Amino acid sequence: MPSSTTRTRAVSRVILGARGNGAPFRPGGRGAWPGGGVSRRMPAAAGSSAAGLPRRPWLNRLLRALERDLFVLHFQPIVSLHDGHVSHYEALLRLADAPDGSLIAPGDFLPAAERHGLIREIDRMVLAKAVQLLAERPGAAASAGRRVRVAINLSALSVTDETMLATIERTLHGRHVDPSRLSIEVTETYAISDIPRARRFCAGVLSLGCSLALDDFGAGFGSFHYLKHLPFSELKIDGEFIRGLTGSRTDQLVVRALAGIVRGMGRETIAEFVGDRPTMGMLRGFGVDYAQGFEVGRPAPLLPDRLSHEELARL
Predict the structure, then answer these.
(1) Which of 35, 42, 104, 274 fits 291 for a cystine, CB–CB 3.0-4.6 Å?
(2) Is 1 contained in some domain?
(3) Rounded-to-integer distance, Cα 91 and Cα 301, Å
(4) 197-255, pLDDT tens digit by residue?
(5) pTM (predicted TM-score)
(6) Which of 256, 198, 205 is nearest to 227 (CA)?
(7) How many domains does the chain have?
(8) How far apart are CA 9 and CA 226, in angstroms?
(9) Domain assignment of residue 3, yes or no
(10) Cβ–Cβ under 8 Å, residues 212 and 234
(11) Does a structural domain hold residue 4?
């Protein structure tokens, strides 16, 4: 792990997934990275300020967390709407540093990490944790023989950092992990500041053999600009269009159109914040490829090898 005094920016989540032929199964979002759907980041705790918990010295606290390895990952599955099998798991970042022993949501500490220049270091920490897990489970399967795949969500600074691609390659090589088992998620709002650099990074990730997803698609006004200029293998439809899908004609038109466009490009779509069975059925009918949300599975501290019988029954 890099020195805890290094100034850099961070990732709020990671994805662990399964890859392979025919396997059954699969959650959360950003403000709801839980809540009836899939959530990338847990919402900030009630009563906490935008910068984190009230008046806490976040710089020293985050440096201590990096030094003492107090960041933990929780795993939420993503499921194929075609066959019900697990596609992959997303690993969500939490901080195990609350006085009462509870986990602190990313919405509480990430703003402070960005403000103090620690984001890239957290990104690298998450990368290291994800790749180490894959190295320790070389034959692990999520279901029906699929190998576990990890996808990590990188911050804007990492996406436009000229050294990040080499860091990913070096980390994978050092642990002897097949690049196809790692996925990178790029949040579109992070990429807009420097499209040429973001494009080089995305192309480089794909050339390594990793998967790459454009995350929270539709959250920004320039979404289709990124769709045109950034190479990707998967597109994650923002939960804003999914949470009220069954009752909104506008959302239905947008989601159906996006699924058709991405399919026409030879790529795949993932719907976030899927919170009920009617929504899953509608997404399946629209041709969306994967679902993530509470209807499929909630984040858990351990990466399961497969869904429980109860979870499979819901699909």
Answers:
(1) 274
(2) no
(3) 9
(4) 999 999 999 999 999 999 988 877 667 888 888 999 999 999 999 999 999 999 999 99
(5) 0.79
(6) 198
(7) 1
(8) 22
(9) no
(10) yes
(11) no
C-alpha–C-alpha distance, residues 61 and 68, integer Å: 10
Tokens encoding 7 = 């100034």
**Pairing mode of beta strands 71-80, 182-187:** unpaired
| H helix or E strand, kind and range, residue 294 | none
CATH number at 198 reads 3.20.20.450
CB-based contacts of 161: which residues, under 8 Å, 6+ apart? 120
Contact predicate 191/184, CB 8 Å: no
**Structural domain that includes position 248:** 13-314
CA distances from 24 to 49, 82, 124, 140 (A): 42, 10, 32, 15
Surface-to-core class of residue 178, CB atoms within 10 Å of its CB (0-12 exposed, 13-18 middle, 19+ buried): middle
Distance CA 272, CA 263 (A): 17
What token pair was written down for 47?
């009563």
Residue 5 inside a domain? The answer is no
The count of residues in the chain is: 315
